[in-house]
Amino acid sequence: MSNTDTTPFPKNFLWGGATAANQIEGGYLDGGKGLSIQDVMPNGIATAPTEAPTADNLKQVAIDFYHRYAEDIALFAEMGFKVYRFSIAWSRIFPNGDDAEPNEEGLAFYDRVLDELEKHGIEPLVTISHYETPLNLTRTYDGWVSRDLIGFYECYARTLFERYGSRVKYWLTFNEINSVLHAPFMSGGINTPKSELSTKDLYQAIHHELVASATVTKLAREIAPDAQIGCMILAMPTYPLTPDPDDVFAAMTGEHSNLMFGDVHVRGEYPGYALRLLKEQGVELDITEEDREILKNTVDFVSFSYYMSVAETASRGNQQTTAGNLIPGVENPTLKTSDWGWAIDPVGLRIVLNQFWERWQKPLFIVENGIGAKDQLVEVDGKKTVIDDYRIAYLNDHLVQVGEALQDGVNLLGYTPWGCIDIVSASTAQLSKRYGFIYVDRNDDGTGSLDRYRKKSFDWYADVIRTNGGSLTR
After folding, report:
1. What local confidence, expressed as pLDDT, does residue 320 receive?
2. Where, by residue number, is the active site (predicted)?
3. How far apart are CA 439 and CA 447, in angstroms?
4. Is residue 473 part of a domain?
5. How far, in whole angstroms, is CA 82 from its chain's centroid?
6. Strands, E, within 130-265: which ranges?
7. Contact by Cβ (8 Å): 405, 412
8. Structure pTM?
9. What's the number of domains the chain is made of?
């Protein structure tokens, strides 16, 4: 493919990038913001949360988007972004999560962000809750274990829809909602340590999130009827390690733990395999008739993150497990890995796109994809940059597979690669794990000028957008 005439990407395809408030904004107490769970996670998910914020938490400043948003959005516009996915920090709007009234300073900040996006003609794609539950809701209510959080979340979402409903077309209810199975504190704001959390409480928390998602989906249609509401799932295709039927079944079972969340969001009820799983684990959920009715408010589209695939086997104890995006799996010996041990599998993205489209027949949106790498800032022709050919190769190969999926007949709305500007990693809380097209001069020890520099991939991605994928190489 070399020009816009031969590209499989539709003319209205939404090219852009994605970030999250807790990994980019900084200003962790500015403008009346309250504490979130991220303020007691200085090491990401590597260690238990601290009792109080500590000075070594890079997210307190992050990359200072809170003060530099106009500069950064201008850089996104220079690349040609059609859409920008960002999250709103719940504790900027309701500092404690259960406050009677919202914080006007927090609302005004996102007004200014939306002003800049509109100025540059960039469509906002807003995640309502992205791993940043207000800390008070975690400590007081044990997060989503409590049914009370449905009401607090509904109040928060109502505030957003009433304030921004006429300005935001695309909304996501929860980020990577299925990750609560593996990271209950970060994903579900659950204060009970994972080792002490009962299976019943974990799945009850998941149920509360699913009900909350359906509740605000219904609410959005009442307040902002022109909006599109989507769910967001951590996609990780699972391959059988061998053709042994037991391995194939193990892979299917592993996939079910992710697909269940999309099934409820799209079909409006729990699938049979999920009900069997709960029954076999002795879990009887507290599901009211009102819950069952609310769940019928299904999403308009399905969004997902995709970084890697995993393998699975019935003989897991004998196999080498591999690192992953919150969900570990069995190492696939046929794939290369990133600096952080994540399998690199472009074809897996085509597989996921086809699987989700065939299963749900809802428009899809790739809202995270990318490679974390150790970039080196260098000087070329008097300008500082990063020669990140590895990032270009990764994204090019994945986008070629996206093009194949489009030709397969998949309905795909857009593509927002993760960390379009360098941010603090969610899993490791490092800045050295870089994803962006824009290098931010800040280090893991907190030093650095915070200056921004265009990487080689910046111009490459701008060209991909300009040609609507026509510049991609096979």
Report:
1. 66
2. 368
3. 14
4. no
5. 18
6. 170-174, 228-235, 238-240
7. yes
8. 0.97
9. 1
Give the position of tokens 């940043």. 132
- Is residue 4 domain-resident? no
The token pair that represents 447 in the structure block: 């030093």
Asked whether residue 153 is domain-assigned, the answer is yes
Segment 305-346, tens digit of pLDDT: 999 999 999 987 766 667 677 777 898 999 999 888 899 999
Q: Cβ atoms within 10 A of the Cβ of 446, count?
A: 13
Q: Which two tokens stand for residue 252?
A: 């299917």
Is residue 121 included in any domain, yes or no?
Answer: yes
Q: 94 near 102, Cβ under 8 Å?
A: yes
* Angle separating helix axes 199-223 and 148-164, nearest 10 degrees: 30
Q: Is 196 designated active site?
A: no
From 51, 132, 368, 379, active-site residue: 368
Domain that holds residue 106: 14-466
Amino acid making up residue 419: G
Residue 1 has pLDDT above 50, yes or no: no
What is the pLDDT of the chain when averaged over all its residues? 96
The CATH number that applies at residue 218 is: 3.20.20.80
How many secondary structure helices (H) and strands (E) does the chain include? Answer: 14, 16
The tokens for 335 are 């794939």
Q: Which two tokens stand for residue 398?
A: 């994945």
pLDDT (mean) for 10-15: 97
